[in-house]
Amino acid sequence: MYTLHYSPGSCSLLVHCVLEELGVPFEAKRIDLKAGEHHGAAYRAINPKGKVPALETPDGVLTECAALIEYLCDRHGDGTLLGKAGTWQRAKTLERVATLATEIHPLFNRYFHAPDFAAEEGAQEAVKSRGVEKLVEWFREQDAGLATAYWSGDAPTIADHYFMVVTRWGRWLDPQATRMKNLEPFMKRMGERPAVARAMAREGITPFS
Q1: Residue 83: count of CB within 10 angstroms of its CB
Q2: d(CA 130, CA 125)
């Protein structure tokens, strides 16, 4: 039995969807970031980083999306979401996950949390503006290159779930990533997956809002 600590629409949505896709029993506990619950002593006792997601597992508490999804996929399912150890599919899936975790996710941090990167208001605006510029450029490239049903190809992997999460964040950009020619049907397709639909319904969100 697992316990997922999540915040609606955050990167924890990735783990939420993967748990549903794998069909393993888990309890979902919402953490109210706006109310600062993640900074409270009770949650810090679970995750001293004060962030989501955190997953309570039979082995202990695990954090960080990349570690969580690999841990879960190695223990459950048929291996299609991540790929079996040592295979090309797994390496390519992890390559995509790494791009999102180390390049795109940090750009969104600059967009949503500019004060963490600069003290001066003018510098904060510059940080945010440059982040938006690079994000829009990247999403346009992904939209232009998306010639298959999913970002990973003809079948979805955990990289597609992560890509869905960051593309959903892209609804705040101009132009909206969620409304780009090829990304919009991708988002609709992902949202129609029963596992994704269950996770989003629990979080009170949709692929586009």
Answers
A1: 19
A2: 8
The distance of Cα 105 from the centroid of its chain, to the nearest Å, equals 8
Architecture of the domain made up of 2-75: 3-Layer(aba) Sandwich (3.40)
Identity of residue 193 = R
* Alpha helices by DSSP H, the chain: 12-22, 41-46, 65-75, 88-99, 105-112, 121-145, 158-169, 183-191, 194-203
Residue 9 has phi, psi (to 5 degrees) of: 80, -5
Question: How confident is the prediction for the chain on average, in pLDDT?
Answer: 96
88-193 classified as CATH 1.20.1050.10: yes
Q: Kindly tell me if the per-residue pLDDT of 118 is higher than 90.
A: no
Q: What is the pLDDT of residue 116?
A: 87
**Domain residues of the chain, as ranges?**
2-75, 88-193
The pTM is what? 0.96
